[in-house]
User: Fold this.
Amino acid sequence: MAYLVGVLLWVGLIGFCIYNWYSINPNSFMFEIAYFST
Assistant:
């Protein structure tokens, strides 16, 4: 149970950082998506 909570916290933290970075640099965010998807 503690492991699941830890994973959810990490996912939330990473998602929050990505969301903030995307709101600041939308073009670089799309570039990263295209770069990692290949």
Summary: The mean pLDDT is 81.
